[in-house]
Design a protein that fits this description.
Number of strands: 15
Strand content: 5-15%
Oligomer: single chain
Radius of gyration: 22 Å
Distance between the termini: 30 Å
Shape: globular
Largest sheet: 5 strands, mixed
Number of helices: 21
Helix content: 40-55%
Structural class: alpha/beta
């Protein structure tokens, strides 16, 4: 069994456990939707203290934990890296099924949160005061935690998209920074024609990137109403993405390199991969992983589907959620409010995280920060504008973890064969429909 298949089996089992939890006759919203815990109750829990276990891989949380314990000396926090992404979700679902070993707080990415919310596996925090925090967060992350009819986590960070590009390479070949995706395709042709070793970007098929660009184009291929799910890649936004990206695939204009591989980092460093359309969390990765690119790279707004547009989308980002079976939910909520809406936010921003909070995004200090890596550019101005222009109405599948795990087995075929991207997206749909139906969802 190869790595992709084994991971798919693991996340499939996790999703099955989740749906079994909500199919047992319990109303998922009963887990916490009616709970009313006042701010005074949360303060009392923090003062009384106790022990918290937090499962998270995000590195800046370590300093948040240190400061939180200094502010609330009666609380002891154990920060555990139980794995990233799928690995942690499988461990979390196993603990839920066993009824033992659950953390009090768990980091859950936005795309995975609906699965846990639908199952009633995470607490609806509306009654804890989370429902009053809408103006605290930017629209994309806030809409992502508002799932399953409640607020099932607090946004920890965000990934509003921008275009990162190697200005040195662009200037060398006389390429203007593309303002639209049509111009991006033209730039890809010009670059590769000028130097066949240079590609405008890399792509071998990535679920998060694909769904983000469909999101930006106004596509809404996933519609979810409880256990009623519709998957349709024939909507205008999805079709527009497929038509545009097919040109890059068909003309061999994409570097056949997997992101985060050694070859990818090398391509970013030597200029053979000339741009990335990705989330605002990318600067720290460029600084640490592509040191030779310092001074060469710049940031521009994400190319648009229509000239003069401003639409953006999220790519990545996580919430902190409280499992429904957590022993001390008031104390757990006190921690995530501190980390994601209180003093912990600035600690994390100072550590390099990109905030989901409007106060930080609007602050002169944040907006005016100069990035030496980007030639002194005030890149946060571009990221903040992108955060405010995230298209409304996007939904993830309630089994998106599984869907993403089989993306390369379906859509990925368009990158390595003559399978048209539209057909590959429909193959992904068919696989997801079959899986969702098997798990008890009504999928059309």
């Amino acid at each position: 069994m190869n790595g992709t298949t084994s991971r798919a089996v693991a996340v499939a089992a996790a999703a099955a456990l989740a749906l079994a939890g909500c199919g047992s006759g319990d109303d998922p919203t009963d887990a916490a939707g009616d709970e009313q815990v006042s701010a005074a109750d949360v303060r009392a829990a923090l003062e009384a203290g106790g022990e918290l276990t937090v499962w998270a891989w995000e590195p800046t949380l370590a300093e948040v934990v240190t400061d939180f314990q200094a502010a609330y000396p009666n609380v002891t926090v154990e920060l555990v890296n139980a794995g990233t992404g799928d690995d942690q979700y499988t461990a979390l679902q196993n603990a839920i099924a066993a009824g033992d070993g659950l953390p009090d707080v768990a980091q859950i990415e936005y795309y995975a949160l609906p699965q846990f919310a639908l199952a009633g596996s995470v607490t609806d925090l509306t009654g804890y005061g989370a429902g009053d925090l809408a103006d605290t967060f930017t629209p994309g992350p806030w809409s992502s935690v508002n799932t399953g009819g409640g607020v099932h986590g607090l946004p920890m960070d965000s990934g509003p998209m921008a275009l990162f590009y190697n200005q040195e390479v662009f200037d060398e070949h006389g390429i203007d920074v593309p303002a639209t995706w049509d111009e991006y395709v033209d730039a890809a042709r010009e670059l590769h024609r000028a130097d066949p070793q240079v590609y405008i970007t890399n792509d071998v098929g990535d679920a998060g990137f694909t769904t983000s660009l469909i999101w930006q184009s106004g596509g809404q291929p996933f519609q979810v109403d409880g256990t009623e799910v519709t998957i349709d890649f024939t909507d205008d936004g999805s079709a527009r993405f497929a038509d545009t990206w097919q040109q890059l695939i068909s003309e061999d204009l994409l570097a056949p390199v997997s992101s985060w591989s050694d070859q990818w980092y090398q391509g970013l460093a030597d200029g053979t991969i000339a741009s990335l359309a990705t989330g605002a969390w990318m600067p720290a990765n460029l600084i640490s992983g592509v040191a030779d690119g310092a001074g060469k790279w710049r940031v521009a707004p994400l190319p648009q589907w229509d000239a003069g547009g401003t639409a953006s989308a999220e790519n990545g980002g996580s919430s902190l959620a409280v499992p429904s079976a957590a022993a001390n939910k008031a104390l757990a909520y006190g921690f995530i409010e501190y980390a994601n809406a209180g003093d912990g936010v600035q600690i994390r921003v100072d550590g390099g995280a990109f905030p989901a909070t409007t106060a930080q995004l609007q602050s002169p200090e944040f907006l005016g920060a100069e990035f030496a890596y980007f030639g002194g550019q005030q890149a946060n101005e571009i990221f903040a504008e992108s955060a405010g222009n995230v298209v409304d109405g996007w939904s993830y599948l309630p089994f998106q973890v599984y869907a993403n795990s089989v993306f390369n087995d379906t859509v990925g075929q368009a990158y390595v064969s003559d399978t048209p991207l539209t057909d590959a997206l429909n193959a992904w749909r068919d696989t997801c429909v079959s899986y969702g139906t098997d798990q008890g969802f009504t999928v059309s």
